[in-house]
Amino acid sequence: MKKTSRLAALVAVGLAAALVATPGALGAAKKVIKPKPKVTKATKPKVTTASTAATTATTAGTTATTAATPTPAKTGGKLTVGIEAESTNYIPSTAWAVSGVIVGSAVYDRLMDANDKGVAECYTCESMATTDNGVTWTMKLRPGIKFHNGEDLNADAVITDINYKRNPASFSNGIFTAFILPPTIKTMEKGENDLTIKFTMTGPWVNFPIYLTGQIGQTAAPACYKNPQQCAANPIGTGPFKFKEWVPDDHFTAVKNESYWRKGFPLVDQVTFKPIPDEVVRINALKSGDIDMIDTFNGAKIAEMRDLKTAGKINYSDSDQFGEATWVALNNDKPPLNDKRVRCALAMLTDQEELIKVKYRGALGVANGPFGPGNLGYGPGDLTSLGYPAPNVDKAKALIADYLKEKGLSELQTIELGTTSVPDNIDVTAFVAQQWKTKAGINTKQVNTEQAKYISDILLPGNFMATGLRGYSGADPEVNNVFWNSLTFAPSGVATLNIQRIKNPIIDDALGKLRTNSDPTLRKRYAEAIAREFNDNCYNVWLYRTTWGVGAQKNITGFEDYTLPSGAKRAHLVAGYFWPGSVAKG
Prior knowledge:
Elements: E1 49-50, E2 52-53, E3 62-63, E4 78-83, H1 98-107, E5 112-114, E6 120-122, E7 125-129, E8 136-141, H2 155-166, E9 185-190, E10 196-201, H3 208-211, H4 228-233, E11 241-247, E12 251-256, E13 270-275, H5 279-288, E14 293-296, H6 299-310, E15 315-319, E16 325-330, H7 340-348, H8 352-360, H9 393-407, E17 415-420, H10 423-440, E18 444-449, H11 451-459, E19 466-471, H12 481-484, H13 505-516, H14 520-537, E20 540-545, E21 548-552, E22 556-557, E23 584-585
Parallel strand pairs: 4-13, 4-14, 17-18, 17-19
Antiparallel strand pairs: 1-3, 2-6, 5-6, 7-8, 8-10, 9-10, 11-12, 12-13, 14-21, 15-21, 16-19, 16-20, 22-23
């Protein structure tokens, strides 16, 4: 069966997301997968409480009534969304791409979500508070929320869910290994009642709530963990839609949860997600009216949809806030890229602005570090504002010559430059390879691999030299800890999320301080130290900042701007994510 793919790779941890993967479909045939759920109506709380848990806070808890539901021109109807790919499964304990996050968010709710300031707020919880700089956190869940099969959302359900995600021996394969890094969760216990959870950490963890705004905080029903394989194809959550059927490689359909705890949501009766990996086909389906909505991170298509919006033909919105970078990852464990001189030479030979102008009509911004706009570690300004080397062909040639002389070599070995089989991904890496060849005579071998094999056999085990990636999104600079920490280092041939095989004590120290220090001025300093170490060592060849755009038919609204239960605006289109529950079809 054909698997869908894209340039990005690995894991999205919601707003805490870092690297992004798009696995292919589950199974070898277009088997229709349908659930047989028991549905019990949930009681609605009269008053809800929103909690903010900023990295600068030691306590969190603000009272607010549930925000009023927007009044669209019409509710009901069926919504069809074209997405770039589908996931291998839909249990939230395994890695999802952006498309998986969107689909999953139709079925699952999050314990917490991020507002437009990048601060974690309660969603299915009422409050989340600490009085000791994050050593202990107390969460109170909203009463009356039920899973689609009738089970209660309570402390036991949350503890079961998070413990499963932490277990390397589980169906999740321990994918959320952020929890293995110190400080981490020491114990989780039920508090004074069934709706209260006490988290005790091994040390201060000031930004723990932001981790609960992504997949780690999306809670599956206890029944899912009695039979995870079944739940992977028959998801059971508390979300605005209940799973109906999944035909791999064709569509995923969910229907309105009539008992959803947020009164007035969802605004449509049914949502169907259709994987359309080809960017051209996807936008043409929108223009022809065959589908209602699409999302894209392709710069050329973003420019095209901006034009369509200006012409009054579609509704459209985009954002790069808290967003990802796109880059060429260099394997620091494989020669010749285990030598800083070669890595920095490749960086100096790459002209990001030329790539963006030629490929994407100038629609994207140049990346100069791992952090995106809105993040404390973001370095606005020119390419070199955080120490990244400026394009310099003569200096690049000198670095390579120095390397060759020391090693007793006559020429640099061929660089294998990999990506997945998506045409745009191939074009980007080919463009970069041509720059290297034209400017310094560097030979490359393009390696284009089907994504499922690419991730499992090539990327995670480090069986590559250089490869195109996209990721490192997030509102907090520390949430990519698992990808950069020496504790997750493994040599090539051994699977790890530390893809570039980074071992850097300065980065390790800054990551540890970011987890334990709530002072925003100091946290900014630590984040910038990480960016400068990335750039000084040329761990990546930065290309551009990712902008995510969502286009829709003129009668589709609600994806552009919507509110959390507190009434605060949600962070907009972070890594392409929008909430299906707020979308209306007029």
